[in-house]
Specification:
alpha+beta; 39% helix; 155 residues; 26% strand; 4 helices; 2 domains
Length: 155
C-alpha cells in the first residue's frame, strides 16, 4: 500500500492506474517519478521504473487487445505482464460506462477479472456483469458500454 494525499493509503492497483494514466498521457519516467514523490508516495526509483516499464507494455498492447475478436482467445505470448501480483494466471481489465438508475448520474467503473484460464473478451465481459449482478443493491447501474481494455499475464 502507498500513501497519496487526498486518498490516504491506497492499494497497489490504484498506484498502477495512476502510473498507467501518466504513461498514456506521454509523460516521461522522470516526471512520473517526480509527481509521485510530490504526491507523497514513497517508492524506490528502481521499483517506480519497473512499474513504468510494465505500464508502457500494457499501453503498447492495447491495439492488439482491441483487435482481438470478441469470441476469440488472445495470444498469451502477445500479452504484457501485470504490474503487480494478480490472483490468477490472467487479468482482464474491464471498463464499464453507464448511468446510475437512482440519480441519473453518468459513471465509469473499472474492475479486474482474474482467472487461471484464458478467456475470450465475451467471457470476460460476462464475468464482469456477473460480478456486478451479485451486488445489484450496491450498484444500481444501467450499463451503456462494457469493454475489455487490457489483458495481462501473471508476473
Amino acid at each position: 500500500m502507498a500513501w497519496v494525499p487526498g486518498y490516504g493509503r491506497v492499494e497497489e492497483g490504484f498506484l498502477a492506474s495512476f502510473i498507467k494514466d501518466m504513461v498514456e498521457e506521454g509523460n516521461p519516467a522522470n516526471k512520473i517519478l517526480a509527481d509521485l514523490k510530490e504526491a507523497g508516495v514513497k517508492i524506490r526509483r528502481s521499483t517506480g521504473l519497473e512499474l513504468i516499464r510494465k505500464a508502457k507494455g500494457i499501453v503498447k498492447s492495447r491495439p492488439y487487445v482491441a483487435s482481438v475478436n470478441y469470441d476469440k482467445y488472445p495470444d498469451p505470448d502477445r500479452l504484457p505482464t501485470a504490474e503487480f501480483d494478480i490472483s490468477g494466471e490472467y487479468g482482464y481489465h474491464v471498463k464499464m460506462t453507464g448511468r446510475n438508475r437512482l440519480t441519473g448520474e453518468k459513471f465509469v467503473r473499472h474492475t479486474t477479472i482474474s482467472t487461471n484460464r484464458l478467456l475470450t473478451k465475451r467471457e470476460a465481459v460476462e464475468a464482469a456483469m456477473d460480478y456486478i449482478a451479485e451486488a445489484e443493491e450496491d450498484y444500481p447501474f444501467e450499463f451503456t458500454a462494457i469493454t475489455v481494455t487490457d489483458i495481462v499475464t501473471h508476473p
